[in-house]
Specification:
The protein has 632 residues and is an alpha/beta fold. 31% of the residues lie in helices and 24% in strands. It has 20 helices and 30 strands. The strands form 8 sheets. The protein has an 8-stranded mixed β-sheet, with helices on both faces. Bound molecules: adenosine-5'-monophosphate-propyl ester (PRX).
């Protein structure tokens, strides 16, 4: 794979040209650097109508053999994983490639002893501890499909995901440490599992050492099952197109969808993009601050770096605990060479000034990255000047849960960078901007709907259990294209700038929520008739949630109603989806056919009151005056 590393911009241009004119040959070359049990017959077959995309058909492999067996000969004693605890003075934990290999095998054998086999779904609801990585890889080792659920989601959300995936096992912990707080997780799992019929066992790791109730025959302690297992577990042979994992993500309608990624293509693409975007070299220490509950953690904490034989850092805590220098203290402590975080974290740390950054030695950093949401120019410069000391290249990684890996991004130190622009597509990626009529916009300096006209190896294959939904959400808006849901602009040189979602998805601190899911949660309250939720710009979170709520006229205490709304959103989704502003209104602006005019509500939430547009076609235009008058 090393010879596929792009070292100059002209090499990038050459590789890009080749990858789009000969995609099969190009990806053949990348794929052949991996360890396959059987070689593929067809590199690629696809159509975006059904849709059906198949990479490396006929080939078999196991992704964990590519992490371990493929790397062990040269990296046995190199560090694979460094784990930093929430408390700065608590002991950290490290695993060499060999140690991680044994730990993964023991966990895999433990799962097998519980009857988990190839194709079974395993839900993982764990904090950021090494066992999370171990559990993910243990599933992959035996061909079980992991579905990691971020440990901030509520019992209801967890139950929905367990039921949708028809999981047989949940792996969780007694509790978690996050900054100054400790929270219980097992209680949440118990509540969730009570609403499901498919879970046979719950495997519980001790993290906080708090009391938790164990249900006999169903619940098993990790420390009683896993450490006594054999340290060798043969890898299950997987078809390239067998599912590797499911990860739930929000869209504009309905409940979150289970995005499915498959073994071969996901492996090839995450390793290739990690190596190039972060210009991986032997001995590099890569730290991505995301949680493994999101796609960024899957691809750039676990799979990408470990496939390349890098050392990956996992952090249990938060950027501001015990103080705003924590990230930089960790960079200094482990001599981190590549650092990747979200704009929201950068903006929240900017508020503490430069002193916490200046205190630490960040001279080991070579490349710094940003991901998850658009980065504003001020944050970009602050990041490069203070963290990158004005010299580290900043790579702005645009991609999605559905794309599996980075799609449009700078290649560290090699491609030109321009603040707020993600940059050029990576090799193999063919973005287009479409206009309202679905026609490709060929000129530069234009904006349009960002779509992809050809598949790449880690494109979403389906939405679990409901292929029609996958087609509807991504392949129906513009026939023959994958639609990202984002609007984008191309500059005079062909660099892309992501403007943001153009659908009903809100991105709060880099986390995706559908307006419909939040509205459904709010509407659970008996005295609420209906609601409409929109996003509005927030200086730190990027976007925040504004809810317009219509209550029954018998409701007298609005403060109570507000509390009820916050409670239901917490219970239905989790605290991460709480609306920052709740405005009670007597009605919502609707067209005569009953459709809510979100455009108007968005303008009100943004405070752009001079541009509300034509309201005369509304069923009752007077509601707009009232909404504007009482705007928060
Ligand atoms: O709107 C884009 C935004 O996040 C969405 C994808 O969210 P998710 O599936 O949770 O994946 C996040 C991590 C890859 C996109 O549709 N987004 C992601 N990265 C960027 C971004 N917007 C602007 N710039 C980015 N670098």
């Amino acid at each position: 794979m090393k010879n596929l590393k792009i070292k100059t911009f002209s090499e990038y241009q050459k590789q890009y040209e080749f990858s789009v004119s000969n995609p099969e040959l190009f990806w053949d070359g990348v794929a052949s650097t991996f360890m396959w049990k059987k070689k593929w017959e067809n590199t690629l077959t696809w159509n975006f109508e059904e849709p059906r995309v198949s990479w490396f058909e006929g080939a078999t492999l196991n992704i964990t053999e590519n992490i371990f067996e493929r790397n062990l000969a040269t990296k046995k004693n190199d560090l694979a994983l460094i784990w930093e605890a929430n408390e700065p003075l608590a002991a950290n934990r490290t695993y060499t490639y060999e140690e991680l290999y044994h730990a993964v095998n023991q966990c895999a054998n433990g799962l097998k002893s519980l009857g988990v086999t190839k194709g079974d779904r395993v839900c993982i609801y764990l904090p950021m501890v090494p066992e999370l990585t171990i559990a993910v890889l243990a599933c992959a080792r035996i061909g079980a499909i992991h579905s990691v659920v971020f440990a901030g989601f509520s019992a209801t959300s967890l139950a929905d995901r367990i039921i949708d995936a028809d999981a047989r096992l949940v792996i969780t912990s007694d509790g978690l440490n996050r900054g100054a707080k400790q929270m219980s997780l097992k209680d949440v799992v118990d509540e969730a599992v009570a609403h499901t019929a498919c879970i046979q066992n719950v495997l519980v790791l001790k993290v906080t050492d708090t009391n938790c109730s164990m249900t006999e025959t169903r619940d098993i302690w990790w420390h009683e099952l896993i450490p006594s297992q054999d340290i060798i577990c043969p890898a299950t042979e997987m078809e390239s197109e067998d599912s590797l994992f499911i990860l739930y993500t929000s869209g504009s309608t309905g409940k979150p969808k289970g995005v499915v990624h498959t073994c071969g293509g996901y492996m090839v693409y995450t390793a290739y993009t990690f190596m190039n975007v972060y210009q991986y070299e032997e001995g590099d220490i890569h730290w991505c601050t995301a949680d493994i509950g999101w796609i960024t953690g899957h691809s750039y904490i676990v799979y990408g770096p470990l496939l390349c034989g890098a050392t990956t850092v996992m952090f249990e805590g938060i950027p501001t605990y015990p103080n705003a220098g924590r990230f930089w203290e960790i960079v200094e402590k482990y001599k981190v060479t590549q650092f990747l975080t979200a704009p929201t974290a950068i903006r929240s740390l900017m508020a503490f000034g430069e002193e916490p950054v200046q205190k630490y030695d960040l001279s080991t950093l070579k490349i710094i990255g940003t991901v998850g949401e658009p980065i504003n120019e001020e944050a970009w410069h602050w990041y490069q000047n203070n963290v990158g000391k004005g010299t580290c290249p900043v790579v702005d990684n645009w991609w999605q849960t559905e794309t599996g890996g980075i799609m449009i991004s700078g290649i560290g130190g090699i491609s030109p960078q321009k603040p707020t622009f993600a940059g050029y597509p990576l090799p193999g990626i063919q973005p287009v901007l479409l206009n309202q009529d679905g026609e490709e916009i060929l000129e530069n300096e234009q904006e349009g709907y960002l779509c992809m006209k050809a598949p790449w190896p880690s494109i979403i294959r389906t939405t679990y259990g409901n292929h029609a939904r996958c087609k509807e959400a991504y392949f129906s808006n513009f026939e023959g294209y994958y639609f990202t849901g984002d609007g984008a602009k191309r500059d005079e040189n062909g660099m892309y700038r992501i403007i943001g979602r153009i659908d009903d998805v809100i991105n709060v601190s880099g986390h995706r929520f559908g307006t419909a899911e939040i509205e459904n949660a709010i509407n659970q309250n008996e005295l609420i008739i209906e609601s409409a939720v929109v996003g509005y710009p927030h200086p730190i979170k990027g976007q925040s949630i504004y809810a317009f709520v219509v209550c029954d006229h018998t409701l007298s205490d609005l403060d109570d109603a507000r509390k009820d709304i916050l409670n239901t959103v917490t219970n239905e989704i989790g605290k991460i989806a709480l609306p920052e502003k709740i405005q009670f209104v007597s009605g919502l602006p609707k067209t005569r056919s009953g459709k809510i005019m979100r455009r108007i509500l968005r303008k009100v939430a943004e405070g752009d009151l001079d541009n509300l547009g034509d309201v005369s076609t509304l069923l009752d235009p007077s509601v707009v005056d009232e909404i504007v008058k009482n705007r928060i």
